[in-house]
Please model this.
Amino acid sequence: MNVNREFIARWADTLESGEFPQTRGRLHRSAPTEDGVPAGYCCIGVACVVAGIEPVMGRSGYWFDNQSVSVPYVLVDLAGKDVKWADLEKRNDGMDNYHPHSFVEIAAHLRATYLNETEEAS
Model:
């Protein structure tokens, strides 16, 4: 599997740290939306911070490497080609057949899927 295990471990640790509030639908949201989506980061936005990609304020919010909702290419190159980004986005945002996953649940998924550690948190 082509993944950067060291990066995945740091990302999972950061998700579990409680340092970042969680949001949906954007890599980083600076203010809550009118329909109640909180300010914060999605799990991929946290990965951008761990990777050292500086957020830049644009007209419609923060951007990482010219992306506000999609995975920046530099992050794909750093984390590894086999990371299932769409699956992580669906877990974070509660799309398709997923309930919205907490950062702790997403960290457990990262560890189980890419680091062969324990089963997912429920």
